[in-house]
Amino acid sequence: MFKKTFALAALLLATVPAQAASKIYVMTTTEDLAALAREVGGDLITVDSIAKGYQDPHFVESKPSFLLKLQKADLLVAVGLQLEIGWLPPLITQSRNPKIQPAQSGYMEMSQFCNILEIPQGQVTRAMGDVHPMGNPHYWLNPENGRRIAKAFADRFSSMQPANAAQFAQRYTEFDKHLSEAEKGWEAKLAPYKGRKVITYHRSWPNFCEHFGLNVVDYVEPKPGIPPTPAHTLDLINVMLREGIKLILVEPYFDLRTPNSIAAKVGGQVVVLMPSVGGNKETTTYFQLFDYDINLLVSSFSKVK
Ligand SMILES: [Zn+2]
């Protein structure tokens, strides 16, 4: 019955005369991907994100509203590298949308287009931590990877809607130019702090720090995804005192008690940086995300000398 109806619907669609193609409905797992899709898709697409930028993207609670959106999606775009492994696979299955099942053309992971750091060598074991078994999934925090993601979106949208390919290409070119200009400003602002050592809570920042010349020495988490332990916290205090490290960068969804107590012991400062678009009201675009984080870092560095 279902198959018959489906076949009939397909037949009807095929006989409808050619007209302006409807918007591509894109679902992304994170707001960063949604923001980049919007840059190149403009009003030719509709885009929605499952996780909000203020949520920990490794752990997202399912909601029925996600399924309704996934059922309608033409394209589902994930970060990949198992960032979403704890919550996305059941949503995809339950959506029953044949287009967005893994291995179908309506599902894509942006990691395949990006430079990936911290790819484990040799065998991966649980002892290495709970997350990041395939490399660091926080790669969107290097603008060069943002550029690659935008290009991948432009190419994919063009293949889905060849009639609009020129517009997608044009929008990508504009984004690329805007990003290159913004990067010059960001690099200039952080240039005086090149080589500065920092501690971060989770390994969210290697891409950002490598690009902008900051040096991540250690983490509040003893292993990715593992909460702080007293022994590791003590080690961290000693490292910070010995090396004169003052800043602890923390994502907005982590408990501030341990970072605050470490900062108090070393005369340092906790800085809540946004790892994602949508982390707060001031970070609603990919550009604003870097503006916000870089301005905050500059003011924090200047305070601690
Ligand atoms: Zn992570």
Molecular structure report:
- The chain has 305 residues and is α/β, with parallel strands linked by helices.
- 45% of the residues lie in helices and 11% in strands.
- It has two domains: 20-183, Nitrogenase molybdenum iron protein domain (Rossmann fold, 3-Layer(aba) Sandwich); 189-304, 3-Layer(aba) Sandwich (Rossmann fold), CATH 3.40.50.1980.
- The strands form two sheets. It has a four-stranded parallel β-sheet with strand order 2-1-3-4, with helices on both faces.
- It binds zinc ion.
- Zinc ion binds next to loops.
Count of discrete structural domains: 2
Q: Roughly what fraction of the amino acids lie in strands?
A: 5-15%
Radius of gyration: 21 Å
Question: For this structure, what is the CATH class of the largest domain?
Answer: Alpha Beta
Q: What summary fits the major beta sheet?
A: 4 strands, parallel
Overall average residue pLDDT: 92
Stated plainly, the CATH topology of the largest domain is called Rossmann fold
User: What small-molecule ligands were found?
Assistant: zinc ion
Which structural class is indicated by helix and strand composition?
alpha/beta
**End-to-end CA span:** 72 Å
